[in-house]
Every structure is written in structure tokens, then in C-alpha cells.
């Protein structure tokens, strides 16, 4: 059934988000500084919320992620949450197309004391993903996708070439204020996430779901997908065995 149109944000959503953020731990100076420096540099305020950032870090810890890939960096707010979830020896690679954004992120990571854990790759994500594959990088244990929505289907193909059985993928902004259920939408962002979700649902290598969210970031949602173990191989995949490699 098609969406009846955009839904106005309820101020209560932001109020509850602020309550939860303060309850489970307010932003610390590094995170607050990342937000301030991003705003001062003119970056759009489209980073994840504090409660979403905490959830990303928790999910990364739950899967024991030693290698993390982030597609879409902005000012590095989510990068800080994810980098802090890494165990000793872990590493995060983040992809960002805008040079100004990447510069702001590097400064924010320096101030947070995390720059030694993070590789910031500047350039179009499709090119950067292809380069990571060509260089034999990966597999990545955890992937956070928060980039341009029309590119989501193509980025999924690249992610799967850098994944392994058990890799967890989290994708942001997949509900689009409810417009995702409209097959006739002319918005390329809506069509991008629709195709992305269709690919998640149809790929036998994945077990996936999506959920709607409300909060200080408005009405949207996340998709989560886990790479299955190969049907003919019940044993754990050997180190370095990526899904897209034979």
C-alpha cells in the first residue's frame, strides 16, 4: 500500500531521545566536539543521534567486530562510536566522498585520540570499494552504510565482496518518512532504498530485516542483514575468507 505522504515529526520523539541519551550516558567532550566542529565547518546535521551511535557501538561489540567498514563518514560522529567499540588490534576503514568532510573527520578523530585506529579513504564509495577488493582488504566483521541512498544497491554488491559468513550490515535512512512503500515515488533516494531492501530480501546469502524508527532524527529506519554461513560448509570460515572470493 502506498504511503499517504510525509509524516510531520512529533516534538515528543526528540524529547524522549534526549531523555534516553542522558539516561544511558551523555555525549562526552570528544563527541560533543565532533558535533560542534562539524557545524562550524558547515556540514549538514544528518549524523546519527546519540542513542543510535550507542546502539552502533553495542552491535559492533556484540558481534566481536575487529574490522569495521563505514560507508559515509560526514564529520566522524558515528566513526567515533564505532572506533571505540574495537578491541585491541582492531581497525576501522571509513569512506567519504567529500574532501572537506574527510578533513573535519580526521581532526575530530585526532581530538578523540582515535586516529591511529581509523583509515579515512577519500573518494567515491564505488571506487573506494573496488579498490579495497582489489587490494585484498577484508573481510570486515561489521559494516555501517550511511551514504547517498541511490547508491545503496551498488554499495551492497561491494560490501558482499568484502564480507564473510557472520558479517553484520547496518544501513541507515531506509524508511524515508514512510515513502519507502510507494513504488511510484519519483525520488531517487526512495527508489534507491527500495531496490536495496529488495536485494536484501532476495539474496539467499543474507538474513535480513528492516525497522522503522522515530527520534531526534525524525521518522526513518534501519535495515540489518547478516551474512549466512554457506550451506555446504557448516564449519567456521577460515580467516580472510570473503563471501565474494572463490
Outline the structure in words.
By secondary structure, this protein is an alpha/beta fold. It has a single domain, classed as Vaccinia Virus protein VP39 (Rossmann fold, 3-Layer(aba) Sandwich). The protein is 39% helix and 18% strand. It has eight helices and seven strands, in the order H-H-H-E-H-E-H-E-H-E-H-E-H-E-E. Strands 3-2-1-4-5-7-6 form a seven-stranded mixed beta sheet, with helices on both faces. Helix 2 (29-40) runs antiparallel to helix 5, helix 3 (50-62) packs parallel to helix 4 and helix 6 packs parallel to helix 7. The longest helix has 15 residues, at 188-202. The chain is globular and about 45 Å long. The N and C termini lie far apart (41 Å).
Q: What's the level 1 CATH class?
A: Alpha Beta
**Regions with pLDDT < 50 over 5+ consecutive residues?**
1-6, 232-241
Kindly state the percentage of residues in helix.
25-40%
Major sheet: order of its strands? 3-2-1-4-5-7-6
The profile of the biggest β sheet is: 7 strands, mixed
Mind telling me the C-alpha Rg? 18 Å
Strand content: 15-25%
- For the residues shown, what is the average pLDDT? 88
Write the element-wise H/E pattern from the N-terminal end onward: HHHEHEHEHEHEHEE
Instruction: Please report the number of helical segments.
Output: 8
Q: Quickly count the domains.
A: 1
Instruction: Tell me the number of strands.
Output: 7
Shape: globular
Q: Gap between N and C termini, in Å?
A: 41 Å
The name of the CATH superfamily reads Vaccinia Virus protein VP39
CATH-defined architecture: 3-Layer(aba) Sandwich
CATH fold group:
Rossmann fold
Class from helix and strand fractions:
alpha/beta
Amino acid at each position: 500500500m502506498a504511503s499517504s505522504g510525509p509524516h510531520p515529526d512529533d516534538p515528543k520523539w526528540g524529547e524522549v531521545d534526549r531523555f534516553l541519551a542522558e539516561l544511558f550516558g551523555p555525549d562526552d567532550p570528544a563527541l560533543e566536539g565532533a558535533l560542534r566542529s562539524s557545524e562550524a565547518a558547515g556540514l549538514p546535521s544528518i549524523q546519527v543521534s546519540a542513542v543510535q551511535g550507542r546502539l552502533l557501538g553495542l552491535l559492533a561489540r556484540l558481534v566481536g567486530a575487529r574490522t569495521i567498514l563505514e560507508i559515509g563518514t560526514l564529520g566522524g560522529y558515528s566513526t567515533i562510536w564505532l572506533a571505540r567499540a574495537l578491541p585491541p588490534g582492531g581497525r576501522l576503514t571509513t569512506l567519504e566522498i567529500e574532501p572537506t568532510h574527510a578533513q573535519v573527520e580526521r581532526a575530530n578523530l585526532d581530538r578523540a585520540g582515535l586516529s591511529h585506529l581509523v583509515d579515512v579513504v577519500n573518494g567515491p564509495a564505488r571506487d573506494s570499494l573496488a579498490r579495497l577488493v582489489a587490494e585484498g582488504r577484508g573481510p570486515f566483521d561489521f559494516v555501517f552504510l550511511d551514504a547517498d541512498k541511490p547508491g545503496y544497491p551498488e554499495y551492497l554488491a561491494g560490501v558482499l565482496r568484502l564480507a564473510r559468513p557472520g558479517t553484520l550490515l547496518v544501513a541507515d535512512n531506509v524508511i524515508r518518512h514512510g515513502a519507502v512503500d510507494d513504488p511510484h515515488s519519483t525520488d531517487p533516494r526512495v527508489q534507491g532504498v527500495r531496490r536495496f531492501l529488495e536485494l536484501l530480501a532476495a539474496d539467499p546469502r543474507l538474513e535480513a530485516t528492516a525497522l522503522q524508527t522515530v527520534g531526534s532524527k525524525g521518522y526513518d529506519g534501519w535495515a540489518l542483514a547478516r551474512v549466512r554461513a554457506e550451506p555446504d560448509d557448516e564449519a567456521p570460515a577460515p580467516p580472510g575468507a570473503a563471501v565474494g572470493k572463490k
